[in-house]
Design goal:
single chain, alpha+beta, Rossmann fold, Uridine Diphospho-n-acetylenolpyruvylglucosamine Reductase, domain 3, 3 domains
Length: 432
């Protein structure tokens, strides 16, 4: 099948009206993919856009952007440029940090429900498989790059993944296509470039089908990963079906390998970063802690808490700065460092209000509840089973020197409302 027909078929399979984005670096692969996609869109009309990520890592970066603008202008495709800052101090290395920044840019530009096309090909797949194997990755890593997958409510597709770099070069030559060569692609201090320029040519010289065989191994690992995903989904259903809340007794009854699989599966479902192997082992080793123990294991981009027999998986909770407070009229949206909350708080009598303020919980507050008198807030939160990490986020509304209500930011709702007060969602008046 010709590359043009391959791209035509891929575009035809996309739902009419669904926006298709092409990640355009300006290199041969992405320039060719966008060119073929633009041609295909004449036969299968779909909204087609291009997104270029300007990493700012080298002097040639402005030239890449210029080429992308010229190509998109010639093809009649709207181009959107995302400028990013690559943080090389986070321990991922230059390649990993650049990838992280690039995908964050894609998430900002490509809306949920839309499709993003990436231009990786079979040679890239072989390189990715080798890199994963050299890093000691499991099945998920060895599966390398899937042809398509759902990602943060978006669709990622790689229409050219089964084609070789040489096939793409031949097609670009036949079309008289221009592209830019990234000078950093010759830097053999980068792992992928070292494999591409040194290792794979040696493998191909000894085993002429090495690149094809490595890509096939990645495909088979992908099938195995799909099967493991089905197993994890069954285990999750047996434990209640909530990836953020796993019943510890049921989890502990699984084999250790299935425990690891299920926790990773749930993290993926929750869009949390995967816990490093050592952190995951630390977590699973504490599942048999006594019921009143507060187990916490954190890693960059996620954390796990065991509380009252439940394993909670969550993003690192945001914190209100100590000492923060704000005056509030109780009738307009409440703004805080954690966001804006559409809630109201007014006297039950309907009297005018003054002197209301909201502050971070500081400890020692006492709240007067209808029919219960004045109670210690800490005990009240324990009675209604508010997890410790949620307690740390709570906001307390004060009237003068008296606490009158407690807001749970994660729910955008009042958790407790004191005697003589009425707390409700803030309703926006309908426009006539």
């Amino acid at each position: 099948m010709s590359l043009q027909l391959l791209v035509d078929d891929a575009l035809a399979e996309t739902s009419p009206g669904r926006v298709v984005w092409v990640a355009l670096s300006g290199g041969l692969d992405s320039s060719l993919l966008l060119t073929l996609a633009a041609r295909a869109s004449r036969r299968h009309p779909r909204p087609l856009h291009a997104v270029h990520v300007h990493h700012g890592l080298q002097a040639a970066a402005d030239g890449f952007e210029c080429h992308c603008r010229q190509l998109c202008s010639r093809l009649g495709v709207p181009l959107f440029v995302e400028r990013v800052a690559v943080d090389v101090a986070d321990g991922q290395g230059l390649e990993g940090a650049a990838r992280e920044a690039r995908y964050a840019a894609f998430a900002r530009r490509v809306a949920p429900g839309e499709t993003l096309w990436l231009a990786q090909h079979r040679d890239d797949q072989a390189e990715t498989f080798l890199l994963a194997a050299l890093r000691g990755s499991g099945i998920r890593g060895l599966a390398a790059m899937p042809p398509c997958r759902d990602w943060r409510m978006r669709r990622l597709e790689r229409p050219l993944l089964g084609e070789t770099r040489s096939a793409l070069e031949a097609e670009a030559g036949a079309l008289g296509l221009a592209w830019v060569d990234d000078p950093s692609n010759r830097d053999e201090s980068l792992d992928r470039n070292f494999l591409r320029h040194r290792v794979l040519p040696l493998l191909e010289a000894r085993w002429p089908r090495a690149e094809r065989s490595l890509a096939q191994s990645a495909d088979r690992a992908g099938e195995a990963d799909d099967l493991l995903g089905e197993l994890a989904a069954q285990d999750l259903a047996a434990l209640g079906g909530e990836p953020a809340r796993l019943e510890v007794a049921g989890l502990a009854a699984l084999s250790l390998a299935r425990q690891r699989l299920l926790v990773r599966y749930c993290c993926e479902r929750l869009d949390l970063t995967m816990p490093p192997a050592a952190r995951l082992e630390t977590l699973l080793g504490q599942l048999d802690a006594r019921r009143d123990a507060e187990v916490q294991v954190a890693w960059p981009g996620g954390e796990a808490r065991v509380w009252r027999g439940i394993l909670h998986l969550l993003a690192p909770p945001a914190r209100v700065p100590a000492g923060w407070q704000v005056d509030w009229d109780g009738l307009t949206p409440l703004s805080s460092p954690l966001g804006e909350y559409r809630v109201s708080l007014v006297p039950a009598s309907g009297a005018a209000i003054a002197g209301l303020r909201v502050a971070a919980r500081r400890g020692g507050e006492r709240l007067r509840l209808p029919g219960r008198g004045t109670r210690d807030l800490k005990r009240l939160l324990q009675e209604i089973a508010v997890p410790p990490w949620v307690r740390e986020q709570l906001l307390v509304a004060w009237h003068g020197e008296q606490p009158v209500a407690v807001l749970a930011p994660e729910r955008c709702a009042w958790l407790l409302v004191g005697e003589g007060w009425r707390g409700e969602p803030l309703v926006t008046p309908a426009r006539g």
